Amino acid sequence: MLGKFHIETTGVDRCFCLHCGTRLYNHVLSKQRLALVVETLQNDKGIQPIAHCNTESKSSWYAISDELPQFSKAPSPTEIESLLAT
After folding, report:
1. Residue 67 pLDDT > 80, yes or no?
2. Are the CB atoms for 72 and 55 separated by under 8 Å?
3. Mean pLDDT throughout 13-27?
């Protein structure tokens, strides 16, 4: 069963498992965007990161050590299309 917590200030619904509380995905209806929490998948074959998003809120002790593009906030739909095209 799924639960949902709406964050009014950002318009995001955080959806989670009602049994264990694990966050499964975020849904931003106004932007028609769904962000899946990849760690919840049973099989990660073929899944590769294409960018670092929301880097403005990363912990100061976490160093990004690859050459992937970085976005301080969520990338725009155009930027996402560009990332997926590569």
Report:
1. yes
2. yes
3. 91
